[in-house]
Write a structure and sequence with these properties.
The protein is an alpha+beta fold. The protein has helices at about 5, 15-30, 50-65, 150-155, 160-170, 210-220; strands spanning about 30-35, 35-40, 70-80, 90-100, 105-110, 115-125, 175-180, 195-200, 240-250, 260-270, 275-285, 290-300. A hairpin with a 4-residue loop joins strand 11 and strand 12.
């Protein structure tokens, strides 16, 4: 990812989408303050902590800046250690663990208030031919036939106080179209499986590393919610505490994050106040381009008297 790429203004039909898309590119355009050290900021979205996908995406940007351009990330594994503070910058420190003939390994630590809030290991590989197989993409309605998540949020926001509704309905840089939307204020028990189409709202530069970073940002958006589905609970419930604990991704084939991607998610197990979630990401041609896995905290607090 180069500064020149990040200066390219995407062209989209909707002015608000372009603005939101530029915000995402700016969010992922880290400031290099010293060799292997990068600084990032967080958007003021009214949330109490930094969105996990933001930290994953920014950490991947930091690592990618230290790797030759002929190598792409093929896997990443990260742990969320502390909630991120949205009011101060995040420092990303990159350790150059290994530079081999085929593989390059980096470790990134995100720091705030002098303490690590997130760490991630990333492996990069030169392009290489080999055996190939994949699970078939399941049938799903076209994204154009589904409601935009912001339309759903506008309906849900009618049940919120005005100050919360404004935050809840603000324009976001990603377009998400749930195949079978869940009412987050009145969820009903259902199997722990869900699908959604997703993409950046704005056109992105051609840099494949930027598209990986944007997909890393996208991948945390709905994954943890999958484990809540059999239990008819929601992150909006006052007695629920939910947070991502770890996150892993594997990149299989090139893709564009500004074109529709189908995110097929399931949750094989929940126990010990934790839920395990898996995701497969397909492009519209049915190619499995990436996989993800995440365990998250799902803690229900006893009512206070």
């Amino acid at each position: 990812m180069t500064d020149r790429d990040l200066e390219i203004a995407p062209t989209v039909a909707r002015k608000e989408d372009q603005a939101a898309g530029n915000e995402l590119i700016d969010l992922l355009d880290l400031e290099e303050i010293e060799q292997n050290h990068y600084r990032a900021t967080s958007p003021n979205e009214g949330w109490q902590r930094v969105y996990g996908g933001q930290v994953i995406g920014q950490a991947l940007v930091a690592a990618s800046r230290t790797v030759p351009e002929d190598r792409q990330a093929h896997s990443l594994h990260g742990y969320f250690l502390r909630p991120g503070d949205t009011t101060i910058p995040i420092l990303y420190k990159v350790d150059r663990i290994r530079d081999g003939r085929s593989f390059t390994t980096r470790r990134v630590v995100a720091i705030q208030h002098g303490r690590p809030i997130f760490n991630m290991s990333i492996s990069f590989q030169v392009d290489e031919d080999g055996f190939s197989h994949q699970f078939d993409m399941p049938d799903a309605p076209a994204p154009e036939s589904l409601p935009d998540e912001r339309e759903l949020r506008a309906q849900w926001a009618e049940r919120l106080p005005p100050e919360q509704a404004q935050t809840f309905t603000r324009d976001r840089p990603i377009d998400v179209r749930p195949v079978d939307p869940v009412d987050i204020f009145a969820p009903e028990a259902r199997p722990p499986q869900q699908m959604c189409w997703m993409k950046s709202r704005a056109s992105l530069p051609d840099d494949p590393r930027l598209h990986q970073c944007v997909l890393a940002y996208l991948s945390d958006w709905s994954l943890l919610d999958t484990a809540t589905l059999p239990h008819a609970v929601s992150f909006m419930d006052d007695d629920m505490q939910m947070a991502s604990l770890d996150h892993a991704m594997w990149f299989h084939h090139p893709f564009r994050a500004d074109e529709w991607l189908l995110y097929v998610q399931d949750s094989p197990s929940a126990s010990g106040a934790r839920g395990l979630n898996r995701g497969l990401v397909y492009d519209r041609e049915g190619v499995l381009v990436a996989s993800a896995a995440q365990e998250g905290l799902m803690r229900r607090h006893a009512p206070t008297s």
